[in-house]
Design brief:
heterotrimer, A mainly alpha (245), B mainly alpha (219), C alpha/beta (208), A: 245 residues, mainly alpha, 9 helices, globular, B: 219 residues, elongated
């Protein structure tokens, strides 16, 4: 596998590789998202307790899962970048951070919108919402740190280090917030305990989730290509690659 | 080597008293502001005391850490230590130890006065001392990390807060929970054990991250 | 025989500007390499690459026939690097600064007073360094060259702010070091005085 991965560490080859992958990813992302969301929002049955408000699940759950999956990908990339000092992987960390931050923000906003009819309040200090909010702070920290250095290379590397430190902390933070939450308000979260999901809702949910994953990868390809061009703008291959288009 | 470095840091602190006196004053002033803001009702203050004390402690340690590496970075000391390699880790350890001695320890020492101001009960007061004693070294380790990460950044201060405050959250939760439990007469060794575990974990891993942050910042 | 220190095909790009490309250099024991060039030509960047502080965008650096990335500890233990900044803290006295660097390099104790006297700093040992002049601060910074036994020295503009007698004394110490089989890389705008038999120069040109 390393033999196959090794040439991809070269910015030029990775740029073209992402370029070839992009239309497929984007196309399949649009198709699955349309399919999953139309099924979920229009045709799946309403919940017997929550009626039509449950439909926000097709946006909320995938984006919440993606916010964490993206952080994991970012942390693995950061580890790779720091240990093997591969430049394109360092750029990849910064390319993926804003995507994860946006997914986290979507998960928070839809969570609030869901909370209003269900809990009767926009914001509940629920363990999952609170962890998600802190996750957003961690993402913003990585993005802000990368922009704070006059030397772009240093900023990128330091942001990688912070992403890694944050990743070690995420489980600790999550565990302590959960513990803190159960300590302070026993009953309020059990009334919203997860019921098992009926297959008629599960399938559109899974398809939406797949669509979100594909969308994340497609956006990642776009941003990584931009980052490669920005960092390599003075290399001759960039001129020929852009001149050809 | 570590002892020479610690003596150097202590000599510096003795000459730049504002570095450790200001955070201490800040701690006291923040604590005086809370009753003025939320009202002097004794019961309410007693309930809020654990959270107030710990938030004030977080902010004052954060304030102290901002200047931690600035001078040594500007003078090229860090750069030459990184080139030397072997002296870097002792230097990091010396920074952590003296940061705690200069900001964490004074907070522990002054906490009886604070407990009096906020009307904390004797049982909760012991818990407060213990959590401060275990928790402030962890605060120091994390703020040294924050200072190392933002050392070469153009706009250090507010950025440091954005990066480090989320990492303080577990500590804040367990420390104030321990004081609260003690106030209600419940056992709190569980929370203390978790605090000790977090401290040991941080002490094992974070110095490596600090050394690597210093290396990146001078490269 | 493998060279004591060599570098091949070094390239450095800073903020999208190519400072130098395909730079080769070799250095044997007892040799002094003087790097010259205009301001902004990349002298300091080159020294930082050679000191292992930053990694080159391209090229390799060998120390005693080994890649320095593979013998980092050993290389760092053989190296005395003094950068553009002095590496002394202004709030500390000359004695304290010297004690700090002696501990960092794990050097045996010597009487710092005689050393300070030799450097023309007698009577100033207990003043914080911000009370000293720029040249006196530079002498405190360079004091560790009289203590160290590292075979390779990398010095960035060591003569800055020094007066003539101090420059003479420093060059005398250079010769001593070279005679003992040491090697050094120095950037300077000033021409070195005669008497360096093994002097090499490398001219970095400013590139746009």
């Amino acid at each position: 596998m390393f033999k196959w991965l090794h040439p991809l560490a070269k910015p030029e080859i990775l740029y073209h590789f992402c370029g070839r992958l992009l239309p497929w990813l984007m196309g399949s992302a649009v198709l699955t998202l349309l399919f999953g969301n139309i099924w979920g929002l229009a045709f799946s049955p309403p919940d017997y307790q929550q009626f039509d408000t449950v439909r926000i699940i097709y946006i909320h759950v995938p984006s919440a899962l993606l916010s964490m999956a993206t952080y994991t990908i970012m942390a693995i990339a950061a580890f790779t970048a720091l240990v093997w000092q591969i430049k394109v992987v360092q750029w990849a960390v910064l390319a993926i951070a804003p995507i994860g931050a946006v997914f986290t923000a979507i998960a928070l906003l839809t969570g609030m919108a869901w909370g209003k009819p269900m809990w009767g309040t926009w914001w509940e200090w629920d363990a999952r919402l609170t962890s998600e909010l802190i996750l957003l702070f961690l993402y913003l920290g990585v993005i802000a740190l990368a922009g704070a250095f006059s030397d772009r290379q240093t900023g990128t590397k330091v942001a990688c280090l912070l992403a890694l430190v944050g990743f070690v902390n995420v489980p600790i933070i999550h565990f302590s917030v959960e513990w803190w939450n159960t300590l302070h308000q026993g009953a309020s979260i059990t009334k919203f305990d997860k019921p098992s999901v009926h297959p008629s809702m599960l399938w559109p949910l899974l398809i939406s989730l797949l669509g979100f994953y594909l969308l994340m990868l497609a956006l990642f390809c776009v941003r990584l290509r931009t980052a490669i061009l920005q960092n390599e703008q003075h290399r001759p291959w960039v001129k020929s690659a852009l001149g050809g288009q | 080597m570590v002892s020479v470095f610690i003596r150097r840091e202590l000599a510096l602190l003795a000459r730049q008293k504002a570095d450790w006196l200001n955070p201490l004053l800040f701690f006291i002033i923040v604590l005086t502001l809370f009753p003025l803001g939320v009202g002097p009702e004794p019961n309410q203050l007693r309930i809020m005391a654990p959270g107030i004390v710990w938030i004030a402690a977080l902010l004052s340690v954060l304030l102290a850490s901002e200047r931690l590496f600035r001078d040594d970075y500007r003078n090229g000391v860090i750069e030459q230590l990184v080139a030397n390699r072997q002296a870097l880790m002792p230097f990091v350890l010396a920074k952590i130890v003296t940061n705690w001695l200069s900001t964490g320890l004074p907070l522990v020492v002054i906490s009886p006065v604070v407990a009096m101001l906020l009307g904390v009960e004797p049982a909760a007061f012991v818990a407060m001392m213990l959590t401060l004693l275990i928790g402030t070294p962890l605060l120091s380790i994390l703020s040294v990390l924050g200072a190392a990460i933002t050392m070469a950044a153009d706009k250090g201060g507010i950025l440091l807060a954005l990066l480090i405050l989320p990492l303080y959250i577990p500590l804040l939760i367990f420390a104030s929970a321990a004081i609260e439990a003690a106030g209600m007469g419940l056992p709190y060794n569980g929370q203390l054990a978790i605090l000790v575990a977090m401290l040991l974990l941080a002490f094992a891993l974070v110095p490596l991250a600090i050394a690597s942050a210093l290396r990146i910042n001078v490269s | 025989m493998t060279e004591f220190f060599s570098a091949q095909g070094l390239s450095c790009i800073r903020q999208d500007r190519v400072l130098f490309e395909q730079l080769d250099l070799t250095l044997n024991s007892g040799e002094l390499l003087q790097i010259q060039g205009k301001n902004g030509a990349g002298k300091s960047s080159l020294l930082r690459l050679l000191a292992g502080l930053s990694t080159p965008d391209d090229g390799t650096i060998y120390f005693q026939g080994q890649l320095i990335a593979e013998c980092l500890e050993q290389y760092a233990a053989s190296l005395c690097y003094i950068g553009h900044q002095s590496g002394i803290h202004e709030q500390l006295t000359a004695m304290e600064n010297i004690a700090f660097w002696r501990a960092a390099y794990q050097l045996p104790y010597v009487d710092s007073m005689t050393l300070l006297g030799e450097l023309g700093l007698a009577g100033l040992e207990d003043l914080p360094c911000h009370m000293l002049s720029a040249g006196q601060q530079r002498r405190v910074s360079l004091a560790r060259l009289w203590l160290t036994n590292c075979p390779l020295w990398i010095l960035d503009e060591p003569f800055t702010a020094l007066d003539q007698s101090a420059i003479q004394r420093l060059q005398y110490r250079f010769r001593q070091h070279l005679a003992q089989g040491g090697a050094m890389i120095v950037t300077t705008h000033q021409p070195l005085s005669d008497g360096f038999s093994c002097l090499k120069t490398l001219e970095l040109s400013y590139r746009w």
